[in-house]
Design goal:
CATH class: Alpha Beta
Helix content: 25-40%
CATH superfamily: Ribokinase
Number of strands: 11
Structural class: alpha/beta
Oligomer: single chain
Length: 265
């Protein structure tokens, strides 16, 4: 019988289906890993905005995660919306107890502008969780909050990877989707030794809802399949670009195609 590696996503549920747990599980399945989940929050949202957030208790989050980690041979954990200090600290405890490889997407603000991380939780994210992570994948707005400064060009983002690593001693991939230049989207990686950038064509007229979740869960998937972090990032970048390129219509908007290597409509 053929086996699949297992990934766990610890994130919020998106009722609109385009981001969060839903995007992560679609990505896992498309790439070929078995997806499991521990939900941090229920959200009432669609691509236009978030109209409600119901936090899951830290105790219930722990029960969900332990039910998965005690039963399945989890190869990688991806985290997204964590929302509160209590949930972050519970994830810290879980990582120390189970010693899993964590791909941390530091979800702070939705594309629509809604706050998905409480202000009081930023310190715990910075000081307690980021240093335990295998890789952190902030976008431009998130790295600005984590480093307390604005970044307005690709060269500044490249420098930000060095500053981030010096501060947190954790490998970082800064996603440049919010700062396209010359019709290109460029992401920047640094792990203290290796530095590289990845370029893809900027695709206009497509919804970007869920791109960050998809990118980080794709990295976790390829890592679980046995690729190095650097290889996983390169493959995930191609996966995300195809997901956007092959977007399809679902009424008012387009949405990512999480089976991007089949011909889109």
């Amino acid at each position: 019988m053929k086996t699949r590696p297992v990934c766990l996503t610890i994130a919020g549920s998106d009722s609109g289906g385009g981001a969060g747990i839903q995007a992560d599980l679609k990505t896992f399945e498309s790439i070929g890993v078995f997806g499991t989940s521990a939900i941090t929050c229920l959200t009432a949202q669609n691509p236009d905005g978030v109209s409600g957030i119901l936090e899951v208790s830290a105790e219930m989050l722990e029960l969900q995660a332990r039910a998965v980690l005690d039963f399945f041979p989890v190869k990688a954990v991806k985290s997204g919306m964590l929302f509160s200090t209590e949930i972050i600290q519970k994830l810290v405890t879980l990582q120390k107890n189970y010693n899993f490889d964590l791909i941390l997407d530091p979800v702070m603000i939705a594309t629509s502008g809604a706050k998905l991380l409480q202000d009081s939780a930023i310190e715990a994210l910075r000081d307690e969780l980021i240093p335990l992570s295998k890789l952190v994948t902030p976008n431009v707005d998130e790295v600005s909050l984590l480093l307390n400064k604005k970044f307005e060009s690709g060269e500044e983002l490249k420098s930000a990877t060095i500053e981030f690593f010096e501060r947190y001693k954790t490998p970082v991939l800064i996603k440049g989707g919010h700062l396209p230049e010359n019709n290109l989207v460029t992401d920047y990686f640094f792990d203290g030794k290796i530095s590289f950038s990845l370029e893809s064509e900027y695709i206009s007229g497509r919804s970007t809802h869920g791109t960050g979740c998809t990118y980080s869960s794709a990295i976790a998937s390829y890592f679980a399949l046995g690729y190095s972090v650097e290889e996983a990032i390169h493959k995930a970048k191609s996966f995300l670009h195809s997901s956007i390129l092959n977007s399809y219509s679902v009424g008012k908007i387009s949405t990512l195609n999480h089976s991007p290597f089949t011909e889109g409509p």
